[in-house]
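A reminder before we start the practical. When you read a complex entry, don't treat the lines as separate problems. The point of joint prediction is that each chain is placed relative to the others, so the output describes one connected object in space. Small molecules and nucleic acid strands, if listed, are placed in the same frame. In the example below there are two entries. Take a minute to note the order of the lines before looking further.
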Amino acid sequence: MTSSDGRGSHASATFRSILFDRDAGSIDALASVPEFFADLHLDQVVAALTAGREEYRLAPFFCWPLHSVEAVHYRHHVLSELESEPVLEAVRAFAEGMRRRRKHLDLMSKLHYVRQKRRWFLEACSVYCSTVTAFAYRLAELELRSRGFVGLRDYVTAYTVSDVFTSLLAQTRDVEEALAEITYAVQIRGNRVRVSRYEAEPDMSEEIERTFAKFKEGAVTDYRVRMTESAHMNHVEAQILDLVARLFPEPFSRLDEYCSRHGEYLDETIDRFDREVQFYLAYLEYIEPLKKNGLAFAYPRVSARSKDVRGTEAFDLALAAKLVADGSVVCNDFHLSDPERILVVSGPNNGGKTTFARMFGQLHYLASLGLPVPGTDARLFLPDRIFTHFEREEDIETLRGKFEDELFRIHEILEQATGGSVLIMNESFGSTTLRDALVVGTEVMRHVIDLDALCVFVTFVDELASLAESTVSMMSTVVPEDPAIRTYKVVRKPADGLAYAAAIAEKYGLTYGRLRDRIAT
Amino acid sequence: MKAFLMHRDRDVDLAGELPANSDALEQDLELAVLFAGMGAGDGFMSEVAKRALLLSLRDPEAIIYRQQILTDCLEQPAVVRELYGLAGEALNAQRSVWGGILRDSPRAILSTSVAKMELFVGFLRRLREMADEHASRFSSPGFTRFFAMLGEELDEEYFTLVEDHLKTLRFKGGMLMSARLAAGNKGKGYKLRWPREQGLLGRVFDRSGYSFTVPDRDMTAFKVLSELEDRGVNLVANALSQSVDHVHSFFTMLRGEIGFYVGCLNLRERLAAQGQPTVFPVPVGREELALSARGVYDVCLALTTGKDVVGNDVDADHKSLVMITGANQGGKSTFLRSVGLAQLMTQCGMFVGAESLRVNVCDGVFTHYKREEDETMESGKLDEELARMSEIANHIGAGCMLLCNESFAATNEREGSQIAREVVTALLDEGVKVLFVTHLFDLADGLYRRRLESALFLRAERGADGARPFKLSEAEPLRTSYGEDSYRKIFGAAARAT
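Here is the predicted structure of the whole assembly.
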């Protein structure tokens, strides 16, 4: 409901949030960093996304996946509209204004003299008024279709014509103009200072320039000394200001009156929008350089039921951010169609297997944030939860200790996972013998198969790739002519641990035939 | 206020970049000797001479403008030298004004500038007085305009105004400034104002308004007040300091422009003392190919040896190629350098070392010389030569002139000739004038057989006594038998290697 003066939301429209289709209340206290963030390098991504935006406290939003298709679509629509330059420009200008407003208030709280504090308060209000007015004006000119932006526009429009806002605006401008008109003269002679009205005495520097104009040359040195500008006032300046106020009592009494009348003028919904929209801006800004370098992002088709998933020319977002400058980002495709559920990835080391697994997890998580995902096209499942099991370098004790630790963690995961979960298992049991890895791996795989969950399973055990009709084998690949060179392409292909060995042996002349020949000669 | 003694309508360029070929020109034509001779111990003057010579004029009229001024100078050397001295004195005097410790204070900057300007005003007065005294004895358009300008711009009324202003800037009667309220109600845009009532010091403060007095012991407040004064003075200090710079640059320009002519005086006096002739050349436009001279000699050689240097005659009007062949010690290089020097001296408005010269202006003089120091170089000499020629090709164009001295002799004759032939032919077809000194018979002979209307072939022959070079004469290239010896001697290691 409209409150005439107090802080609150102007409620003639129903709009509440640009992030949530249904008002979820505040998630700040509820959201926590998911366990898999580090394994999927999403911690890096979120750190980069939130850097420089600390004032908006965005982390909770990035730690709060959505589970309904409608909620995801709400964001897709908002974001795709935000991708159009005029909308983005309008929002950026708005955000910039709000940021300036906060800076003024921050400064105000640090200052001492009342006449100074009040002027900064006026300035903050002034910035707020112009920012909101300009924003309303620009929103009205835009052709908007998303529920989020249409709601926002209606809200802002209603707000700007409300009595609360229009009277704030009028009074702000009034006081500003009165103060801006003041020009005064200061005379200093020894220890005497006199403040008086300025009587249009001629400008001395102009007079000097005129006198020597006949010698004027093109290029000039700037001899102006950069005077340190402090926002603070010393007691002499304050004394001068008091005399200026005595000389011009009217504008200053209006300022006083203004400050006592407008305490809490900030609209809550507008303030909330200012924070929430940064979630989108942060992501757009993050992916901008990647797009410029030819990497694609797609709004995924999402489903909470179908586990037919696919990604075309997808990539690891965290890695891409690092490699994009060299243009060396490798994209990969994947798809699973019924009854396929599990991608078993094998092949030469350092061939992009882990990156591939991470990418699969990232795509699903980003989709559940309602964001476009790396790739030209994607169809993804909205998981209830994501689980990751990555080898942990740090707790190497004994071989058995580590193996048991891994098993323990996998057990925990399988206890909690459901058919609606996504599992990323990376080189589990990499530290054990092939036989143990085969036996235990098969057991774990059976569990996953029974769960019917979506899973990427990176392993060096070929046999796991063909355990059931739900498993699909993929391999990291090398350049055929030079096996030392990885392509970082992971492709659908039957597992074949010998292919790479044969290739590398050929290169070094150690294949059966070559080695015999060499030994023979 | 511009002296405009080097160009009719602009200042001399004292600091801009020199043409790309400047270093090569300086080295190949031994210009340093010429600059030193003009400077006569004055480094600034040598530098001015260097810039004038390398930044060639391309318009015969502009050349004549300087020739006329130089003619005045030759007739009134004392006045011209005094002008040069005055400008130097003015620049020196203001340099001695101490800037003070507080260089970052506008008030300190202002008081330094006031002091400098007061000095300059004194020198401007002297300049004015010189104009009054000597103007009538100068007749060139350049000097006539210059002296007239001094009389008009620097009249007594102007000096009174300036002195009055400088006095006010001492602020004996306090400071008046205006300000506005900016962010946070802080005063901003402080501007120093010219008090309306002058004369009675007290009157400045006899105004309406409110005042307060800072307690004597409040040191902080005094600091704040002086800071406020600094803010007020800032723009004025800037304006006056820039004005000082402008006057400074007026004197700098004057010194630079007059300096060139004093350099010419120096050179002329030395050559005259050695009995070497000098003459104002006749410059013609680039649309006509002209090069005809009587007794053109190498000015630098004359300066270096201090001896009588013999000149050559050349009649190469309508010629775009001059091939010079013949004996070693036959004066080929000297001739080539004398033509290059004459060309550059013509195009800076000087006299030249000759009895007469008529020459077309060109858009740029380039040199491609065999370099003596190349013998110590590790990398291939031919590579280096080709690289230099390629660099020349980046800059040369129609209407330019190229002087080649033993180019492409770093490899065998056949190869060198082949390269050179293609280079020369291309240059000629592109409208470049080429003067080429060469031992490459294959090259010279091949070009000779083409019977080009626009080509002139000169040959040097050693004098019978071996001491003095004969003059060059028009003749076809001669296959010489002593070539091999010279070849070895001149090309050094490269010859032995081939």
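Discuss with your neighbour: Chain A has two domains: 15-21+29-199+234-292, 296-520. What might explain this?
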